[in-house]
Structure formats: structure tokens, C-alpha cells
Amino acid sequence: MITIKSEREIGLMREAGEIVGRVLDMLEEEIAPGMTTKRLDELAEQFIRDHQAVPSFLNYAPKGEPNVTPYPATLCVSINEEVVHGVPSDKRVIQEGEIVSVDCGAYKSGYHGDSARTFVVGEIAPEVQQLVDVTRECLYRGIEQAVAGNRLHDISAAIEKHARSFNYSVIENMVGHGIGSELHEDPAVPNYGRPHTGVKLRKGMTLAIEPMIALGRSRRAVSKRGAWVAVTEDGKPSAHFEHTIAIGDGPAEILTR
Questions:
Q1: Where do the annotations place substrate binding (predicted)?
Q2: What is the spatial distance between Cα 40 and Cα 45, in angstroms, rounded to a whole number?
Q3: What is the CB neighbour count within 10 angstroms for residue 226?
Q4: Which of 10, 65, 181, 209 sits 20 to 30 Å CA-CA off 111?
């Protein structure tokens, strides 16, 4: 069921979203070759708790899946061919020339904010830099379509069209989502689709839009049994950007800027 948020609720989501945005700003300054992904996670958790919020992802488990081990960290830190859900570790050291997707959520006053950025560490290959730039552009192409009166898959189609214009692959089995008092709410927001289809967008809907785009030909992110992290099928790099947005009377408001 899709929930329509009041102005009060969107205000509370704005507070959670601001914390997430500030966490990612801080990590962008801190990330460097030689740092462990666990250290990024520690910095993020401390920042979130210092701002009277709690990490959305820590101990998260999908509803209706009792056999899934709860997620053990504050951040998802996914490197190179890792699409999403990379678990921070004191054994995973960030290297020069890698791309690092950092996904962060914060829960405050009963509501969540959720955002992701792909950081470039040092010098990287031009084709990988372009992938990162285009994936970021895909996010904003999608957000431009998130206006009342449009259809959900107008967002999806805008993302897909821009990605495929560069011959990139869209990861089809990982999607964005509604968000609010629950981290994952209806509707699912795919990164591919036909324009003018899907549910009609209404004022008060809040969505986490998150394109995951790959350099190779992978259309799915695959994971080993029991592992959270999902990687491209062909081992090629993937980038990921995400914002939580609220649909209002005009252009969507980005709550995690």
C-alpha cells in the first residue's frame, strides 16, 4: 500500500534526510586510499548517533524473510563490480583507482532518509569516470519526472533511456522504493520501464530513487548464497546514486541533498 505523507511527516523525513546528506558529505572528505570500509562505517554511525538518530540499515532484515541474517552495519559500501549491499570490514582496504558506492540511511523521530553516492578514489580510467557521471545524471533525470500527475514508470524510463544512450546496462533486479516510517515501502521504483505506465504520482508520495548502472552487459546483480553483497554478472564496474524525494506541487523536493 502506498502511503501519502502529510506536511508534518515530510518535515520529519527532511530532518532524517539532512543527516544522511551530511554523513555522505563527511565521508566524501574522509575517504582515501588505505582506509578500511569498516572505518567509514564507524564514522557514519558516530555521526548519526551524535545527531540523535539511529542507523536505518543496522540489524535490518526484510519482512517476511525470517531466514535472512540481519544486516550487520550502518553503511553499505560496495566497491567496483559490487552493485549494492557490500558489508564493511576491517579487512577490506580501499585502493587508489577504485569506485566506492556508499549507501546510508538514518531514522529519526519515526521516519527514514536514504541516500547513496559513488565516490571516486584517486585516478580512475576515463570510461569508469564516465560511468559514474552518467549514473549521477540518471538519478537527476529520474527525479525530474517525479512530479504529480506523471506515472511511476516515467521515472524509470528516463533513467533507462539516459543509461542506454551510453550503451550501459541497467541492473533490473535491484530497484528503488517508497520510504517513510518504514525503510522500504510501496511502490517499487524500477530503473527501466515504459513511459506513461505505472501508478499515478501524487502529492505527498515519498520515494527513494536509486539507479544502479553497469559498464558491462550485466542486467542482474548476483550474490553468493548467504552473502549480502551483490555483484555484476560479468565482473564489470557498477555505479549507484540515490536520493529520497517528496512529491509536491511542483518539482520534487530532494530530502537528502
A1: 85, 184
A2: 9
A3: 8
A4: 65
Query: Which of 243, 236, 241 is closest to 219 using CA atoms?
Result: 236
> 244: which 3 cell numbers?
529520497
Grid cell 517528496 in the structure block, residue: 246
Question: Is 196 marked as binding a ligand?
Answer: no
**What are the CA-CA distances from residue 31 to residues 12, 44, 83, 220 (Å)?**
29, 12, 19, 28
Joined together, the cell numbers standing for residue 106 give: 538514518
* pLDDT tens sequence for the chain (257 residues): 999 999 999 999 999 999 999 999 999 999 999 999 999 999 999 999 999 999 999 999 888 777 778 999 999 999 999 999 999 999 999 999 999 999 999 999 999 999 999 999 999 999 999 999 999 999 999 999 999 999 999 999 999 999 999 999 999 999 999 999 999 999 999 999 999 999 999 999 999 999 999 998 889 999 865 679 999 999 999 999 999 999 999 999 999 99
Tell me how far apart the alpha carbons of residues 71 and 58 are, in angstroms, rounded to a whole number. 6
pTM of the model: 0.96
Beta-strand pair 212-214/238-240: antiparallel
- Cα separation, 22 vs 138, in Å, equals 22
Is 154 known as a binding-site position? no
Q: Is 30 annotated as a binding residue?
A: no
Known binder of ligand: residue 114?
yes
Residue partners of 50: CB distance under 8 A and separation at least 6 = none
Q: State yes or no: 234 annotated in a binding site.
A: no
Is 42 annotated to bind a ligand? Reply is no
184 is in an annotated binding site: yes
